[in-house]
Amino acid sequence: MCDTPQTSSSSGIVTPSMVEPAGFKVYKPPESTRGYPLGELPDSYFAPTAVDLKAAQNALTGRTQALVNAPLQLRATREALEKAKRDRWPNTTIRIRFSDQTQLEKVFLSSDKIRSVYAFVRSSLRDDVKPIKFVLYQAPPKRDLKVSDPKVRDLTLAELQLAPSSVLLLRFEDDALNRSDVPAPLLSTVAAQATELPKPLTSTSEETVVTPKPESTGSSEKKKIPRWFKAGLKHILEK
């Protein structure tokens, strides 16, 4: 079931939030995908590879080990470790990728919960789309981040392993909005701020500056002999 947090009005009727988002970035779909329907992703796309399974297993092992060792740690030690994590990654950058490859980006506190991300996305949608439920997820491997899941809603973004940055995909309950040839249903004020997706930085090789050697004149200068050497040589020859 898809999850979308909602707010209650003074009349008691649950309605989508009407507050427009702030402090965000919008990126247009890459040039290579514009005008070309991408088609629906097959189920095989979400099938984890051997590398994905190994990474997931390592992450699971790490979390399990942390839970096993947690009772053995002093409270002060646990608090120190948590503080170290917060100090290292106080913020988490989340990018929401729509079916047409439009991306919506915002920086959250790493201590925020996933409901903050849902609220931001919902506030960015057109008014006619706000009531439609949606779910945020990661892939591959596929991992739904539902607000209704207590294992998700009660954890911070850092505890969900989303810090320092993550890309989340969005799936609407209405499949018509999940087509790759349907533009992201964003507010006009939000879509108007869309810019080109930054290209990855490429390292440029530095030119090596070669210092030219002085040209040879072809004539060798006579080496000067110190006076003390001349005097010593003359003394030896006179003997």
TrEMBL record:
Residues 201-219 have a biased composition (Polar residues). Residues 87-170 form the UBX domain. GO terms for biological process: intracellular protein transport. It comes from the Eukaryota. GO terms for cellular component: cytoplasm; nucleus; vesicle membrane. InterPro entries: Ubiquitin-like_domsf (IPR029071), UBX_dom (IPR001012). Residues 197-224 are annotated as: Disordered. This is UBX domain-containing protein. It comes from Paxillus involutus ATCC 200175.
